[in-house]
Specification:
The chain is α/β, with parallel strands linked by helices. The chain has helices at residues 8-17, 25-37, 40-56, 73-76, 91-100, 127-135, 150-163, 188-196, and strands at residues 58-59, 66-67, 81-88, 105-109, 141-144, 170-172, 199-200. Helix 1 (8-17) packs across helix 2 and helix 5 crosses helix 8. 25% of the residues are buried.
Length: 205
C-alpha cells in the first residue's frame, strides 16, 4: 500500500493543523506545504509567536478579555463609558462589537453560554464576577449581547434573574441578527445597528 504522504513528518504536521477549527485536510496540507517553502527563520518566528502567546497572554482581571497586562486596554481606557457594560459570550465577540465602532462602554466576557447539552452550567461561566461588578454600583446599564440561540436566550434569562435585585436596566441587542446566529458571524453594519437599537429586557424573549 502506497503511503498517503511521502513523509511521516509531513503527515504529523498536517494532522496537527487539521485539528484547528475550520481547517480541513486540504487546507492543512496547503498551509504546511507553504511553511515548508519558507526559510527556517520565518517558520521559527511563526511557531514562537504562537508559543509566546500561549505562555504569556493574560486574562483581564475585570472583564476577562485577553490582554498583555492584568487590566486590558479597554478597561484601562479613561475615554470609555465605564457605566455601560456589554456582556458577550467570548473574546471573538468583543472583537466583533469593537469592529462596529458603535459601542464605547466596557465589556464582560462570560466565557461561554449556559448549555446543559454541552455540560456548561452557570458555575462554568464568569457570572459571579459579573454580579460583583454590577453590585459595586458603578454600572448603570447592562447590554446582553449574546447569540440569538436557545442557549443565548436561556443565559439572558438567567442573568436577568441574577441581576434583578440590583435594579440596573438590562437591554438586549435588537433582533437584526437572525435567530440562531452567533455575534461573530454578523456583519459590522447589522451588528452595529443591533446594538444601537437595543431594547429593554424584562425577562421574556
Amino acid at each position: 500500500m502506497i503511503p498517503k504522504y511521502p513523509s511521516l513528518l509531513l503527515q504529523k504536521a498536517i494532522d496537527e493543523f487539521s485539528k484547528l477549527p475550520g481547517i480541513g485536510n486540504k487546507t492543512a496540507t496547503r498551509l504546511v506545504l507553504h511553511l515548508l517553502r519558507q526559510d527556517v527563520k520565518a517558520v521559527e518566528a511563526f511557531g514562537n509567536a504562537i508559543i509566546q502567546l500561549k505562555k504569556e497572554v493574560k486574562y483581564c482581571k475585570k472583564c476577562h478579555n485577553i490582554s498583555d497586562t492584568d487590566i486590558c486596554q479597554i478597561c484601562a481606557d479613561p475615554q470609555r463609558e465605564a457605566s455601560i457594560l456589554c456582556v458577550v459570550e467570548n473574546i471573538r465577540d468583543v472583537m466583533a462589537v469593537e469592529a462596529t465602532q458603535q459601542f464605547h462602554g466596557l465589556y464582560h466576557v462570560l466565557g461561554g453560554i449556559i448549555s446543559p447539552m454541552d455540560g456548561v452550567g452557570p458555575s462554568d461561566l464568569t457570572i459571579d464576577s459579573l454580579v460583583n461588578r454590577v453590585a459595586s454600583g458603578e454600572i448603570k446599564e447592562v447590554i446582553l449581547a449574546l447569540s440569538t440561540t436557545m442557549e443565548g436566550d436561556t443565559t439572558n434569562f438567567y442573568l436577568y434573574r441574577k441581576l434583578e435585585p440590583y435594579h440596573v436596566p438590562l437591554s438586549v441587542i435588537a433582533r437584526g441578527i437572525s435567530i440562531g446566529d452567533e455575534l461573530e458571524y454578523a456583519d459590522e453594519i447589522t451588528l452595529g445597528r443591533s446594538i444601537a437599537n437595543r431594547t429593554r429586557f424584562t425577562g421574556t424573549v
